[in-house]
Amino acid sequence: MQVFSPNMLKTFAECEKKYEFKYIKKITVPQPVSVFEKGKKIHALAHYYLRGDDIEKFLPTLTDEEKNIWQKLLNNEYFQKKYINSEYNLTARIGEYWVGGRLDAFMKDENNYYILDYKTGSIPKDPQTDFQTMVYLICADKILTKGWGSNFNLSFIYLDLKNNQNHIIEFNSEKKSLYENAITKTCNKITTTRIFNKNPDRCKFCEYNKFCKN
């Protein structure tokens, strides 16, 4: 079963050729570990903390910058909500396609549910219509609907730890229709495309640029 992730959908929308290299030909290009190290440490620490593990032995391994970010996360009002799950894989079917991903954390208070996504770098330029936002909200909505019908509120919260801000996207029926259409349209394009064209506007910072000939 093919499951389309937000990164797959976003990559295809930005450059079809990059999608072909990364997800069809499965060509990997090594990148500096330092690019991801800070985010990985904060995500892992948050996961252990939320599920009740002892994290004291990990704290001395943090840099001063990472300690500052961690404190911002601890103080965040949404991170203090009631814990449901973290590093949570979920999938959902939209029409004939399956989509899914991994939530950083899933929280609640009363009948309000919150998908949390921690960002130690930048958040998406358009959080409302980013594929991560769309896929996660659609998947969570389908799961909650099975158990709670329509008696719940659902939001996606980008926790911008760099600037100590929250970017909140509230889910509703209008967004549900918009998101499902956008996801289905992109999945359909991926499955029917035979010649993958490159987007020259994306070449400058693309890791595949050196051997992309199309």
Index terms:
single chain, 214 residues, alpha/beta, Lambda Exonuclease, Chain A, six-stranded mixed beta sheet, 6 strands
Give the overall pLDDT as a whole number: 92
Mind summarizing the main beta sheet? 6 strands, mixed
Provide the low-confidence segments as ranges.
Answer: none
Helix amount: 25-40%
CATH class: Alpha Beta
Helix/strand-derived category reads: alpha/beta
Please give the radius of gyration in angstroms. Answer: 18 Å
Overall number of domains? 1
**What portion of residues belong to β-strands?**
15-25%
Number of strands: 6
CATH topology: Lambda Exonuclease, Chain A
CATH architecture: Alpha-Beta Complex
Short description:
The chain is an alpha/beta fold. It has helices spanning 6-14, 16-24, 34-50, 64-75, 131-148, 173-192; strands at residues 3-4, 82-94, 97-109, 112-119, 153-160, 165-170. The chain has a single domain (3-211), classed as Lambda Exonuclease, Chain A, CATH 3.90.320.10.
List the helices and strands and how they pair.
Blueprint: E1 3-4, H1 6-14, H2 16-24, H3 34-50, H4 64-75, E2 82-94, E3 97-109, E4 112-119, H5 131-148, E5 153-160, E6 165-170, H6 173-192
Parallel strand pairs: 1-3, 4-5
Antiparallel strand pairs: 2-3, 3-4, 5-6
